[in-house]
Amino acid sequence: MARRRRRARYQRKPRCLFIPAGNTIEQRPAEIADRTSFGHWEGDLMMFRKDLGRHNLTSLIERQSRYTILTRNRDRNSTGVMTGIIEKLKVLPEATRLSVTFDRGTEFASYPLLKRKLVMDSYFCKPQAPWQKHGREHQWPGSALPATGRRHSSALR
């Protein structure tokens, strides 16, 4: 009988959710980047702490009009987040739900559900973008932050 391989003591367990490196922002059509057509969305997860427990919201922002939809999630798992997005977007006409762009969080790993249920294309930020590391706000490369204030940087602009 073979011995089991040991894993390093503090090594992270592998996650079974996978986001391909191929669906990046660079592969989106130019009309999405230029914000010339309606129906292209940006999605993000916002997490809050409260005295009675953790809460999180999914925000969906249409790129041209900045129309915003917020969805409350029960937890952060990918299937639940995508189900909430589908429920909010399915009431809109098909012409207003063409594509969605996400960051590379594991909460968006069930993105194929959007293609199956709503026929929406999904795109993701670059895997090595320095302003996306560990969910913290980072400044854009080469830009300076004011000494007294904070500037919000979004990888989806």
UniProtKB/TrEMBL annotation:
Cite the residue spans of the region called Disordered: 133-157
GO molecular function annotation: transposase activity
Q: Which GO terms describe its biological process?
A: DNA integration; transposition
Which taxonomic lineage is given here? Answer: Bacteria, Pseudomonadati, Pseudomonadota, Alphaproteobacteria, Hyphomicrobiales
Spell out the InterPro entries in the cross-references: Integrase_cat-core, RNaseH-like_sf, Transposase-Integrase, Transposase_IS30-like
Instruction: Give all residue intervals belonging to the Integrase catalytic domain.
Output: 25-137
Q: What is this protein called?
A: Integrase catalytic domain-containing protein
Which PANTHER family does the record match to this protein?
TRANSPOSASE (PTHR10948), TRANSPOSASE INSI FOR INSERTION SEQUENCE ELEMENT IS30A-RELATED (PTHR10948:SF23)
GO CC terms on record?
cytosol
- What organism does the UniProt record list as the source? Microvirga aerophila
